[in-house]
Amino acid sequence: MVYFSQKYQHILRVLCLVGLSVLAQSSFAQDSQIQALVRAISDATHIEFSGRSQWLYQMNTEERDGKSVVYLRIPQLDEKSIAALRAIKDDRIEKVEITPKGLDEHTEIRFVLSGHKVESFDYLTESPSRLVIDFYIDENKKPIQAQNQNAAQKGSEKRSPAGTDYIVVPQPKQQRPVAKTKLNKPESQSEKGLENIGSIRTLDGSDPKLERFNVTEKEIKKSSIIASQTNIYLPFPEYPLENKIYKVLKESPTIYEIDPKDTLENKQARFILGLFKKGRVAATIKAIEEFDKSFKDSRYEEILEYIRADLLYSQWEKTNNVETFDQAMGHYDKLTRKFPGSPATEKTTLFIGFAYQNRGDHLNAIKFFNRYLRHYKDSKLRGKVRLAVARSFLDLKQSKQAAKVLDEIEGTTQFVEDKAAAAFLKGNVYFDRMEYSDAITAYDEAIRKYKTFIQDHPYALFNLAESLFWEREPKRSLDNLRLYMQRFPEHTHGGYALTRIGELIEILGAPASRSLGAYKESYFRYRTTTGAKVARIRMLSRRMKDMKEKEMKATIEEMKEMRKLIDLPYSKEFITFMISDGFFSRGDYESATNVLVEFFQENPTMDKKKTYEDRIVRNITEDIKDHVENGDFFNALKTNGRYTLTWLKSNERVDTEYFVGRAYEQAGVFEKAREIYEKTLSRLQEIEKQGNTFTRSVFETLPSIARAQLRLAAVNYKKGSFATAEKYIQSIQSTKPLNDIEKIERVILLADISKERGRLDLAKKYFKELLKSWEGNEYLKIEPYFKLGEILKTEDKLAEAILNFEEVVRIVDSNDAKKDHIYLKALENLGEAYAKTKKPQDAITAYNKLLDQDIENREFNSARYQLGTLHFDAGRIREAQQVWEPLKNDSNPFWYNLAQEKLKESEWKDNYKKYIERIPAMSGMTQ
């Protein structure tokens, strides 16, 4: 006879009432000691404790003698582990103190941290069961005292004293009877939230709502959201649907019993059953084969054939051999047909269907599910079996059939949990088709109607958040992922969820330290998952900015290796992007470009082609901009020329051509610069007319219209087109878009144009107003003082001119500023003005200071000549000769020849004087 165990009979009843959840009975290994494994993993000290299937431990952090100390109480540690822990000493843990065996038979461990920036994560793993603690350095962590002060200011909830906070691994929650209750009236729209639904199994007891990952409305930056459109984000895999019925059926095996009789057939059958119960697979199969030869049409055929099918299925589970699976299913199918009235048939039919579904053979799964529905029309499991049919249709990408079945379930089943399951699964119909807007509507409706069941459908929160992510609703997506992580932190999809949380924090524009915190948590808590590996890539890319060369090489190799380990769509494109962004953050724009170009050339037909092209052009533009800002127009134009016929050929960015125009202006090619600036101005005006200025400025370093007008004024002035320059300068409607340096340049241009057009009084007025407006910043006054001094010198107002040139010299000297061309010209003008006002010693001082700058520019040879002349006129011929000596190295001998003429004239006078003195008749005459 075939019997069902009491466990199975009970489970069949439970399946109908409570949605197929099974209590897992866990045993405690209380007698064995705990072992510890210590490893250094990347940038963390990693400690794993093993030896328990369930963990009861206490952990908290306190301050002791100015040090942060992490206290850990766990059951008794073995001696080897105690020695390993005491040996820890690195840049995260200063020392480890251990009390091996307290009064309560527990071990107390005290980790004395190396500094306040050291942080710890503690988490649990299931298979195998481990308590894991990671210590790492958090650069953004504040000292304990500061944290406590902030907590007091915010009015945080008071925590219990040390020794009373326990973190316990949660047991599977008890079933809740719902079958006899009527479907609740739909909640109002205001009750749509999930804040009070389900149990909370949070990552961090001190932050149950994961506020550390929240982004408030005030923190959200529109520009950051727009900028994220140019990034690559990986599509994470759909949350796996648990096959609960299959698990229940496997864990409730059929019990076979044979009443003893004094017959050979009975004895051999009982012998075979004994072999089966002892787990002797090969002997059991061989014995059944021999039994079949001896006893045709045996009364024990049903039992023995079920045993044979069970053994084949068990063998398939070990070998994963498809032929063995098919043989097992064939045997089960044959038995259900041959013994339709057997108590095992209903269960076996279900088992075959779910076994096929679990293996991914959904056509056969649907076939057996439909057979069950035809034969067991009064079964209370019909709703759940029809849900399984809908799931198989989903996996077969037959979404219309799936939706039809789900609508029928929700409309006809008597069990509210089946209605809820059908409603939540409707969201997956759209999610699988990437119809995210409809998926959001379906999930929202299911939550509104059946929110007390959300705990049974974790995939709904995760898939809803993903749908919102791809529909560009980052705030709602983030909020749903936080809710997901509060309720289902144990699932391995937590790695994906935390990584996406980090990405969403970035997208919303919150401080970078917050997103980095999410990536770190993902990596430390879910280290072996793909989601954590994605987080690791983002962390490494972020850190590349401050890496040394050796660490950079190792990091790039690690990221390249990740290409082989992360099996997600677009993962190779994503990782290459992250490497390029790392170079970009270091200011190495050439390497950032080369990484992308090389990958593009190897994958010319990739889906992300446009994204790559845009990022390459961005990197090239930033390279040109960097050269321009450093005054390196040669390499700026060289970079532009290298890519003009390739990546920049169809470039529509305004900033690229603007920076090329700046390079031409710096090179003195004013006509070419003027052409580019005119085109830039025209495009900027069109962008403003279309209302796209803000969006374009997110993706480009977009110059303002005022800035383009200023540049046109500057190049026209330098070309001598003073009227045109004045027209552009006057067309600047507001100076607000200009920076401080540009505002000064604008006034100086106005003054210079006025000077060139003979309006000296107006020019002086501009300079004096400028000096007054920059009263608080001396350095910005250097050029206005110099220009004003030049005008006053032109007007022969030398005393006033000297005051302005002296101010230039004083500001530069007192601020230890760069001694540039203006400084040198100020000294030259001072020397000249002092000489004209009969202050030769001051003139000599100014000229000496100029020539002491070790200048090689022959522009100042005239100053050298004038210095020598001052010495010459004072009769210091030798000093004059020494000053003039370097003039002979000039390719233009003009100043050297003048000096030599003076020396010859002096020599002639001396000789003439001696000659006169030798004539007797002239000896009494005075000169």
Structural overview:
- With 927 residues, the protein is an alpha+beta fold.
- Helix content is 59%, strand content 8%.
- The chain is built from 39 helices and eleven strands.
- The strands form three sheets. A five-stranded antiparallel sheet has the order 6-7-5-4-10, with helices on one face. Strands 2-3-9-8 form a four-stranded antiparallel sheet, with helices on both faces.
- A hairpin with a 2-residue loop joins strand 4 and strand 5.
- Helix 24 packs parallel to helix 26.
- The longest helix has 24 residues.
- The N and C termini lie far apart (153 Å).
- The N terminus is likely disordered.
First-residue to last-residue Cα separation: 153 Å
Structural class: alpha+beta
Q: Output the strand order for the largest sheet.
A: 6-7-5-4-10
Let me know the number of strands.
11
Q: Could you give the topology of this structure?
A:
Elements: E1 2-4, H1 6-18, E2 35-41, E3 44-50, E4 56-64, E5 67-75, H2 79-86, E6 93-99, E7 106-113, E8 118-125, E9 130-137, H3 144-154, E10 167-168, H4 222-227, H5 244-250, E11 254-256, H6 264-277, H7 281-294, H8 301-319, H9 322-338, H10 345-359, H11 362-375, H12 382-395, H13 399-412, H14 416-432, H15 436-450, H16 458-470, H17 474-487, H18 494-508, H19 512-525, H20 530-543, H21 549-565, H22 571-585, H23 589-602, H24 609-629, H25 633-643, H26 654-666, H27 670-690, H28 693-699, H29 705-718, H30 722-730, H31 740-756, H32 760-773, H33 782-794, H34 798-814, H35 821-836, H36 840-851, H37 861-873, H38 877-884, H39 894-917
Antiparallel strand pairs: 1-11, 2-3, 3-9, 4-5, 4-10, 5-7, 6-7, 8-9
Helix pairs in contact: 5-10, 6-7, 7-8, 8-9, 9-10, 10-11, 11-12, 12-13, 12-14, 13-14, 14-15, 14-16, 15-16, 16-17, 17-18, 18-19, 18-20, 19-20, 20-21, 20-22, 21-22, 22-23, 23-24, 24-25, 24-26, 25-26, 26-27, 27-29, 29-30, 29-31, 30-31, 31-32, 31-33, 32-33, 33-34, 33-35, 34-35, 35-36, 35-37, 36-37, ...
